[in-house]
Structures are given as C-alpha cells and as structure tokens.
Amino acid sequence: MKSLLLGATIIGLAMPAAFAQDKPVTIVSYNVQNLFDTIDDKNNPQDDTYLSKEAKEARGKDHEDACESYNDKGSHYYKQCIELNWGEESYTQKLMTLGAVIRSFPETPDILILPETENKQVLDDLVGKALAGLDYTSIVQLDSSDNVHNRGIDVGIISRLPLKGEPETIKMFGEDGDNPHDCKPTRDIVKAQFEMPDGETMYVFGVHFPSGAAYQCRKDAMEVLNKERAKLPDDANVVAAGDFNFNCTDVQNGEFQALAREGHWSYPPEIVGCAAPGSAFYYKDQSWSFLDMILVSKALRPDQDSNSTWFADLGSFHTVVTHPSQYAQDARNRVRPKRFNPDNNQGASDHWPVLMRFLKRF
Predict the structure, then answer these.
(1) Which residue, 266, 259, 260, 278, is CA-closest to 312?
(2) Which of 246, 330, 349, 241 lies closest to 288 in space, CA to CA?
(3) Could you write out the DSSP letters of every residue in 223-263?
(4) Residue 17 pLDDT > 70, yes or no?
C-alpha cells in the first residue's frame, strides 16, 4: 500500500508539468483604439488631440494652430483636437477597462498584438497596472512609425513567452521603399521572435494596414508583408496578426484571398464577407468586417507535412466578447463594439479582439 500511494503521489505531481507542456498557446489581436498617454510628445505633433483640456487651454492659439495644421478646420477631427479632454482620469480608466476586458477572457493570451499604441510607456502602464500579475514579461513597442502622417500610433506586442533576438520594424511606403501608388507612409510592421514552451521559435508579424477606401495601398502593404515572410525559411512557424483593414467588400471580391495565397498564408474559414460575425461594424452600411485577423504559415497547418511541433487550430478563431464594456446596443437591440468615450469614460474599443489557439502536434 505504501508503494502504491508513493506511485500515486509521483503521478499526481507529474501530471501538472505534463499538462503545462501540452497547454495550447493562445494568440490574440486587439486594436485598442488610440491608446495615447497624456504627455505632449514634441516629436509627435498629432498627439495634441490627446491632452487634457487644461493643457490645451494653457497653450492657447498655439494649440489651435497645431490642430489646424493636420486637420481640416471644422471637421470632426479638428473639433476633437480642440475639445477632447484626455486627462489622467480618462487615460487610467481606458487602461483599467482594457485590462478588465483582457482578464475576462476564458484564457488570457500568451501573445497579444495591440495596434494603435502611442509608445512603449502605454504598454508598460497596461502591463504594470491593468494586467499586473499575469506574467507579461516581454513588451515590444518600438515607437518607429512616421508621426506626421499617421498620428504616431504603432503596433505593440506583449507576451508571456520570452523574446528571441531583437525585434525590428519594416517600413511602409517610406522615402527609401517601393511606393508605386504614392501611398502615404503608414504604420510599420513589427517583427518579433518568441520562444515557444518547447523551445521552438515562433515568428510574429504585427500589422496595421491603411484604412478607408485605399484598397491599392492595403494591397501594397500586404505585398510588403508577403516579401518579408518569403525571407524566412519555408518551414518556419510564422504568424501575422493585427488590423489588416481589409473590409468585407475586399473579401467578397476575393481580393484578400488572392493576396493571402500569394504569401502562402492560411486564414480562418470565418473570413467570409459582410455579415456577422466580425471584429468591426460599419453602422452606416450595417455591415461587419474582420478587419482584425490572424494568418499562419504553411508549417502551422495541421494537414501539411511539417517538422513543427505546433499547429494552428484554425477553427478556434473567433471574436472574444466577454465584458460589458465591449458592446453597445441600439434602439433595436443590435449589438456592436463600444468605442471608448472620454466624455463619460465608458466603453473599451471600436474593435473586438480575435483569438486563435496553437496546439502541440505530437
């Protein structure tokens, strides 16, 4: 009996370790909608919108001139630059709400890609305050994008997994790069390597492509990503995640799918068109889009010959709507993402996060 009990104890102690080794790795992309701090960055003129009312009034006409220099006078964005009160209360509440949303997920992500972050400080604040205790030890935010043309918002990444090597950025439509369609400079692609629990390397590209009607510029951005992917070994574990900004029409026309095939990317079957579900909602057109996506390389497909010890569960891809701050309802009880409103400090983001799990192959 004594040996039997000893054996049971050894097995009981061994099981959690084995389970931890086989636990899925979860990747989430979450556009956090203009996560700015409250400090005036002299190198980023377009952060002037995100200052307190007190700071704006102290600057007087200089602030009005700055707002007019990069907004059409009388436009929504000009009015926001003049009137928005982005003080410590709003900033702190935004951080804590995002933290509450992420903590409410059934499983908190091991890798979290975060488009629309102003600088590394906002990620340090998010991790150190709102996500304290969740073991996010790797923080990537290189604050490298052109600040004049795109408000100085970059893609950030936080992770429980250790970094391998130095993260880097890939410029989009800069002076030294290819720009056949005269696209404005946009957010850089962020490239980082992480060590999976068994020691394998996972390459992660964090993206935030051009928005609006500029399909050709999104196409060009995707081709930049595809070229960067082609520089890595064919059998590499590669994920591209973030706000791709391909709207539902781009998907219905098959344009996004063609670009994904060119880059040898696999994408979730939920990426279908303009009907729900989606990660973003166009209220005017009453249409949904998966602007936010997670794409994987061939080595991570379960139906491919691969030496990788991991595969992507493409069927696990879904939006994660688990906290009341994430959604709003209209008069007909239709639900959509609830953007953060500094007037009342309610809401979280105008995007819903998307998730995908990666499982052990053997």
Answers:
(1) 266
(2) 246
(3) HHHHHHHHTS-TT-EEEEEEE----HHHHHTTHHHHHHHHT
(4) no
The residue behind tokens 């979860």 is 26
Eight-class DSSP state of 346: B
* Residue partners of 206: CB distance under 8 A and separation at least 6: 113, 114, 115, 140, 155, 156, 157, 189, 190, 191, 192, 241, 242
DSSP 13: H
Dist. CA 356–CA 362, nearest whole Å: 19
Q: For residue 331, which amino acid is it?
A: A
User: Which secondary structure element, helix H or strand E, spans residue 221, and what is its range?
Assistant: helix 215-230
150: its two tokens: 């795109």
User: Per the structure block, which two tokens stand in for 306?
Assistant: 């691969």
Token reading at 262 = 């060119």
Identify the three-state secondary structure at position 134.
coil
Predicted TM-score (pTM) of the model is: 0.92
How far from each other are the two terminal CA atoms of the chain, in whole angstroms?
Answer: 35
The C-alpha R_g of the chain, in whole angstroms, comes to 22
- pLDDT tens profile 125-167: 999 999 999 999 999 999 988 666 667 799 999 999 999 999 9
